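Could you please consider the sequence and fold appended to this message?
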Amino acid sequence: MNWSLILNLLNMTVEASIPYLLITIGGVFVARAGVFNISMEGCTEFSAFAGIIMAFISGKVWVGVVSALGLAIALNSLFYLFTVKLKGNLSVVGTGINLMAQCIPPCILQAFYSSRSNLVATSVVDPATMRVDVPVLRNIPILSDIFNRQTRITYLTFFVVAILIVVMYRTKFGTYVRVTGENASAAKSVGIKTDRIKFICLVISAVTCALAGLNLSVEQLGMYTINMSANRGFICLSAINCGRKDPEKACVYALLFGFVRALQTVVNNFVPSAISSLLGILPYVTILVVLVIVEAPNARKNHLRIFREV
């Protein structure tokens, strides 16, 4: 058995899972508050773009980080205004933000940099310097190969996930979030300001999506490419649904999707280019398989005639 290959796969799984974990844990809060937010895809894409272009323009990485966080919060505030305050259609508003994320970055790149495909910022952002050597992990066999020399956002992600799970189940705010999503009218009757709860949850989701976008563009590549989020926002919606809006279960599915993407990358090195292109569908096939496995027991419990066994 090739242990080095397995350890490399696990190392890549950690790296590939970070955007999924961040988007999923933030999305769980929004979903538990009773808001269907499909704009996480666009929010992540915009954050990846803002992080690179502002770092490139200013020559400072921290400017890109602040810009990505600010833009993500602004987008989710816009989503909150149109959906919660103005009672707009959630799918329409979310789709609008996603479409803007597909159109605005290439237009800006074409107008200022004569390229619609990418913006390389390695002169300012060096991905090699983004990786951290952790002394505690350095001398631990196996764990060193898997977890050491990951990026700062990678280590921050595990901390964020743990903290948000505690917030969901061990704090008054977490209780308010769950009550708001389960019965908004009952929550209002006991004095819970449900709109404020939804806004805070959207801000949490904005921050996690921004961190996911920064991880993709600033930390991993030092450049922005069109469609950099690669449907991760939609995949995380599947993780949230499969996990029944439970943060622990949803994060397990996020790790599964990260593992599949890492596996795809590893297998690509051993197959012809034609098959390599075909393997691009592997994460999406995994979604369908997982959804079928998770939803099949519920379908059997459904009392509608079309689900009854003949």
